[in-house]
Write a structure and sequence with these properties.
Layout lengths: L1 E7 L6 H8 L6 E4 H10 L3 H12 L5 H14 L5 E5 L5 H13 L2 E10 L2 H10 E3 L6 E3 L26 H24 L3 E5 L4 H11 L2
Helix pairs in contact: 1-8, 2-3, 4-5
Bound molecules: BIS(adenosine)-5'-pentaphosphate.
The site of BIS(adenosine)-5'-pentaphosphate has 36 residues, from α1, α2, α3, α6 and β6.
Length: 215
């Protein structure tokens, strides 16, 4: 059986940071649909090109594109793997589709970790986020700065601001989260699968809470 742990939370809540910190501790595979789409876009694949305008505006890429990506990933994943889904599902249609995709591919949704933080914190985190375009490592100018300003600790590349971390796009992403993704939280609450994590704490404390939720 393949075990899926879903990371829910608004943009900037710290899903990617927590999933990235905890995955190596339990040998889980961190699957970020945002990172997969950015990679597809950089490689100019058909899915990447289709996703481009949605991502740039801060909207959601069509459900069919995501469900196809996740279906393929589940099919190629070995039995016994734990998967961290960071950024999927984020519509009710995706959550419903995942039930079938999981059943068809010998997988089960173990639980859904909801990382929550107040909007002021989300805005501060997204505004200060810097990412490595080469290896994907994430930083924050004050909360998690690299050793040398502007340079990736892991691979030495120059850090950049994500294209969708501009003020207007951030606003739109937060609105989309409330309208399209918040109902997904209700879906997993009804199923008794939500584990609440206080995302306003420092990154190490959040990672500890997430690790506990993975057991
Ligand atoms: P995606 O990449 O998933 O973006 P997101 O959901 O908006 O989430 P973020 O990556 O912005 O936030 P995060 O919670 O991971 O925060 P992070 O850990 O980086 O998606 C991008 C786009 O792709 C979407 O807008 C959409 O277009 C498309 N897409 C992706 N999936 C899709 C789907 N399923 N359906 C349709 N479209 C889809 O942290 C943020 C910052 O805070 C960092 O600088 C970090 O260093 C800092 N930080 C993190 N945790 C802490 C902490 N505890 N204390 C202090 N600082 C912290």
């Amino acid at each position: 059986m393949k075990k899926i742990i879903i990371f829910l939370g608004a943009p900037g809540a710290g899903k990617g940071t927590a999933a990235g910190a905890v995955a190596p501790k339990i040998n889980a595979r961190h699957v970020s649909t945002g990172a997969m789409l950015r990679d597809a876009l950089a490689r100019k694949t058909p899915a990447g090109l289709e996703a481009k305008s949605y991502m740039e505006s801060g909207g959601l890429v069509p459900d069919e594109v995501l469900c196809k990506m996740i279906g393929e990933l589940l099919a190629e994943t070995s039995d016994g793997t734990t998967l961290f889904f960071d950024g999927f599902p984020r519509t009710l249609a995706q959550a419903e589709a995942l039930e079938k995709l999981a059943a068809d591919n010998g997988a089960v949704v173990h639980n859904a970790v909801l990382i929550d933080a107040p909007e002021a914190i989300l805005l501060e985190r997204l505004g200060g986020r810097r990412v490595c375009p080469k290896c994907g490592a994430g930083y924050h100018v004050t909360n998690m700065p690299p050793k040398t300003a502007g340079i990736c600790d892991q691979c030495g590349a120059e850090l950049v601001t994500r294209a969708d971390d501009q003020p207007d796009t951030i606003r739109h992403r937060l609105e989309v989260y409330q309208s399209a993704t918040a109902p997904v939280v209700g879906f997993y609450r009804t199923a008794g699968k939500v584990v609440d994590v206080d995302g306003s704490k420092d990154a190490a404390t959040v990672a500890e809470q997430v690790l506990a939720a993975c057991k």
